[in-house]
Design brief:
The structure holds two protein chains of two kinds. Chain A has helices at about 5-20, 20-50, 55-85, 90-95, 100-130, 140-165, 175-185, 195-205, 205-220, 225-255, 260-265. Chain A is mainly α. In chain A, helix 2 packs across helix 5 and helix 3 packs parallel to helix 6. By secondary structure, chain B is α/β, with parallel strands linked by helices. In chain B, the strands form two sheets. In chain B, strands 6-7-8-3-9-10 form a six-stranded mixed beta sheet, sandwiched between helices. Chain B has a four-stranded antiparallel beta sheet with strand order 2-1-4-5, covered by helices on one side. In chain B, a hairpin with a 2-residue loop joins strand 4 (about 60-65) and strand 5 (about 65). Classes of the chains: A mainly alpha, B alpha/beta.
């Protein structure tokens, strides 16, 4: 592992962030808009809720949004860093350099950690100011919650990269559509029991569903549900291994089938 | 001393279609070798195999006496390339792009090295400019400056001067050759510009349908094909089936 190679991957994307106001803007824009949108929904729900409901809507809805944004930002950072090199036709330069695949992976992971926490920090502070959200209400649960979200974000990110390598830039829409597909079954803003039964069964295999259910158990019942954390961690570990393995497999397949050249010239 | 590049029986086939067909050649220290052929002859596939972007179906590639795919990172750190289709990120400035690649190629004393390259490739005044805002000629110069960031001993050039005006192309050719001569480095050069090849290359390899159909110095090829003009030699050497094309006209 060469630290200079990893630094190069980070620097390339930090330069891009500095040069492209849109990229910097998008780190904060979507989360802020969603924060306002769901904030208004939450305020309305508080107004119409019966007095005995006693549900901490701010933590269950806005808190869920803040953590969902961490997952989404991490996945997007990995995927967009790669797509950016396809769009700028820089793939030839990257893959013909002495950069190792594991350095590329680690570079993207570090980059997404940085971007993820910048965005998370911003949204968490904004939510605290606007809605008096106290994230620490979740206590120790924050740790497994955040770690699992990060790893699942990376897993999804590398799966999308693998598919992009295999099928070319035409599938870039997956970068945005796949996490959106995962969101309803993750039961981010509502309990999984709301979902139709077949979807509830599918949701069992999605780690984020267990995480957000676990979060609600902490907030609404004051109960740390270990089984949700265990299931989420096992599933996340599986998806992460699958994501990285799939990315490596596609990279190897791409070298055999000349698919990297297509990423360069398409 | 082993050749800088040694290619033996190199073959690439996709689902029954052979794109590069058992080619063997070598490039020695200080040598400039041209890889010529019509579109689809297998030049770019060969270059991409030499850059480890494509794994050969058969055959071996040895660079600096080592197997490319077994010592990939070590070898790539000592070689480089420039191609007319291999852009550098358009959002980054000229300096930023070179700085990123200096890190990727493990260059020490980066700033001084970059400043020297900017000077040599007449890019100093563009150092803060966005790469996407450069003209085609300036982008080509930047691509070549990037190719020299690690002082390569082997340089692969895939139509490096395509779409440049004759004056810039001439100056860049001279600079590239001078810089490689200074380190006794080798160049593998593909181009459709026959004048360019005549001027810079010590040896020429003609490819057609993935096979080597003729090979030699310009003088040897002139004698073999009984033609003075390289373009005419090209037309004869790469016409018809490979077996026939190899024969002198």
């Amino acid at each position: 592992m060469n630290h200079r190679h990893i630094a190069a991957m980070l620097l390339r994307n930090l330069y891009l962030l500095r040069r492209s106001q849109y990229r910097a803007f998008s780190l904060f824009y979507w989360a802020t808009v969603e924060l306002f949108l769901w904030g208004f929904v939450t305020l309305w729900l508080k107004d119409i809720a019966t007095p005995d409901a006693r549900v901490n809507l701010v933590v269950t809805v806005i808190g869920a949004l803040v953590f969902w944004d961490l997952f989404f930002r991490v996945q997007q950072s990995v995927t967009l860093a790669f797509l950016e090199d396809i769009w700028s036709r820089n793939m030839l330069n990257i893959f013909a350099s002495p950069l190792k695949a594991r350095e590329l992976v680690l570079g993207y992971i570090l980059l997404s950690l940085l971007f993820g926490f910048i965005s998370f920090g911003f949204v968490a502070v904004l939510a605290a100011l606007l809605y008096a959200l106290k994230i620490w209400t979740l206590g120790f649960y924050i740790l497994p919650f955040a770690v699992n979200l990060l790893f699942f974000g990376w897993a999804l990110g590398f799966i999308i990269l693998g598919i992009t390598i295999r099928y070319g830039p035409s599938v870039e829409i997956l970068a945005w559509s796949l996490p959106v597909l995962v969101q309803p079954m993750s039961a981010v803003f509502y309990p999984v029991s709301i979902l139709p039964e077949p979807l509830q069964k599918v949701a069992q295999f999605i780690p984020t569903m267990h995480l957000f259910e676990g979060m609600r158990a902490v907030v609404l019942e004051g109960r740390f549900d270990v089984s949700h954390v265990v299931w989420a961690s096992l599933l996340t570990a599986g998806y992460f291994a699958l994501g990285i393995g799939f990315f490596y497999w596609m990279l190897s397949l791409a070298r055999q089938r000349g698919l990297l050249s297509r990423l360069v010239t398409d | 001393m082993p050749p800088i590049l040694k290619v033996t029986n190199l073959t690439k086939a996709y689902k029954g279609l052979t794109v590069v067909d058992h080619i063997s050649f070598q490039v020695d220290e200080g040598e400039v070798v041209a890889l010529l052929g019509p579109n689809g002859a297998g030049k770019t596939t060969t270059i991409h195999m030499l850059l480890s972007l494509i794994k050969p179906s058969e055959g071996s590639i040895q660079v600096f006496g080592q197997e490319l795919f077994a010592h990939r990172e070590e070898i790539l750190a000592r070689m480089n390339f420039a191609a007319s289709y291999g852009n550098l990120p358009y959002n980054l400035s000229v300096f930023e792009n070179l700085n990123v690649f200096a890190l990727l190629y493990g260059v020490s004393n980066r700033r001084a090295k970059i400043e020297a390259l900017l000077e040599e490739f007449s890019l100093t005044r563009f150092r803060r400019q966005r790469t996407g805002a450069l003209s085609t000629g300036e982008q080509t110069r930047l691509g070549l400056a990037k190719a020299f960031i690690n002082q390569p001993k082997l340089l692969l050039l895939d139509e490096p001067t395509a779409s440049l005006d004759p004056t810039i192309a001439r100056d860049l050719r001279a600079l590239v050759c001078q810089k490689m001569k200074a380190v006794q480095g080798a160049i593998l050069w593909t181009s459709h510009n026959m004048r360019e090849i005549e001027r810079v290359c010590d040896r020429i390899i003609f490819l057609r349908q993935g096979r080597i159909v003729a090979e030699g110095t310009l003088e040897a090829l002139r004698q073999q094909f009984e033609k003075q003009d390289l373009e005419e030699i090209f037309l004869v050497a790469t016409a018809g089936p490979p077996e026939e094309a190899a024969r002198p006209a």
